[in-house]
């Protein structure tokens, strides 16, 4: 495996309704906006490999721990996100084009820095959503903005957002937390419900297909554990979803004009913050450069 992957957990279990449910003797996974995490040392029953583990295993959201939320906020790899991720997300939102004004939806907003930047950069209201109260507390404290409203959500429902009310929507490093295609499809369909016809939905994520050789790649949907990156020995566990899976989910949810962009350092030179670009020699800096931007238009 590559140096970033410490383990892959394969799940084989019976289908829902069978005589004997399977069990998983390893870390138990559960889903929140922003990622799937693990809790060690327990025996959990899996009703179905197609069932969202957050429903099969009722345990607490780790981001409710202020220490974990703060550590995630300070994760140094976020510099790469601001170089090869968010500037390309902003461009794909295409909010500079003429059109009726309206709010933008940030799903899985975390500690709010991206939502605040969208509000500042495009002079637009932002509805920022996360399931973690601890993350939202950090967002309201560290990244307040008069045009940003922060909301706590439960599960994949956005019932407080009116249908067809959003000018655009985006999520960053969120879909890797979806435990199944069905869960991903449900969330993307809910986001589509909130969008006006013609609105853009943009997904930013790491491109693990580039990170890994074909012989090293796990199966679609497998759990993959990575070092947390803050020097504490913590790990973060997400699902392996090829970028092509996201494109298929967008199409299934009714989005058209689906585009995939893989950012480069050369392109970042025109988009990223000049101070960040000058902060180091990015051509020799350590860190993965495999990012992908997907976007689609609400029909």
TrEMBL record:
<keyword id="KW-0489">Methyltransferase</keyword>
<feature type="domain" description="Methyltransferase">
    <location>
        <begin position="104"/>
        <end position="198"/>
    </location>
</feature>
<dbReference type="GO" id="GO:0008168">
    <property type="term" value="F:methyltransferase activity"/>
</dbReference>
<protein>
    <submittedName>
        <fullName>SAM-dependent methyltransferase</fullName>
    </submittedName>
</protein>
<dbReference type="InterPro" id="IPR041698">
    <property type="entry name" value="Methyltransf_25"/>
</dbReference>
<keyword id="KW-0808">Transferase</keyword>
<dbReference type="GO" id="GO:0032259">
    <property type="term" value="P:methylation"/>
</dbReference>
<dbReference type="Pfam" id="PF13649">
    <property type="entry name" value="Methyltransf_25"/>
</dbReference>
<dbReference type="InterPro" id="IPR029063">
    <property type="entry name" value="SAM-dependent_MTases_sf"/>
</dbReference>
């Amino acid at each position: 495996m590559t140096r970033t992957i410490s383990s892959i957990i394969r799940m084989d279990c019976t289908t829902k309704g069978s005589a004997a449910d399977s069990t998983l003797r390893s870390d138990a996974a559960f889903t929140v906006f922003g990622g799937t995490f693990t809790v060690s040392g327990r025996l959990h029953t899996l009703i179905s490999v197609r069932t969202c583990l957050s429903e099969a295993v009722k345990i607490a959201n780790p981001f409710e721990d202020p220490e974990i939320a703060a550590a995630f906020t300070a994760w140094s790899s976020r510099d790469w996100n601001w170089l090869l991720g968010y500037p390309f997300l902003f461009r794909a939102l295409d909010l500079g084009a003429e059109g009726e004004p309206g709010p933008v939806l940030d799903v899985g907003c975390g500690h709010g820095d991206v939502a605040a930047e969208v509000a500042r950069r495009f002079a637009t209201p932002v509805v920022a959503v996360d399931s973690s109260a601890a993350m939202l507390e950090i967002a309201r404290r560290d990244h307040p903005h008069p045009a940003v409203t922060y909301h706590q959500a439960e599960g994949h429902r956005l019932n407080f957002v009116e249908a067809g009310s959003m000018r655009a929507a985006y999520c960053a490093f969120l879909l890797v937390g979806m435990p199944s295609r069905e869960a991903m499809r449900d969330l993307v369909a809910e986001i589509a419900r909130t969008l006006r016809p013609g609105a853009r939905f943009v997904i930013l994520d790491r491109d693990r297909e580039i990170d890994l050789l074909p012989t090293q790649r796990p199966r679609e949907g497998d759990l993959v554990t990575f070092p947390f990156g803050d020097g504490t020995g913590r790990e973060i566990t997400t699902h392996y979803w090829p970028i092509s899976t996201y494109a298929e989910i967008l199409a299934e949810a009714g989005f058209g004009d689906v585009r995939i962009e893989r950012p480069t350092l050369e392109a970042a030179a025109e988009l990223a913050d000049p101070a960040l670009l000058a902060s180091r020699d990015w051509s020799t800096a350590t860190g993965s450069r495999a990012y992908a931007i997907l976007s689609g238009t609400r029909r």
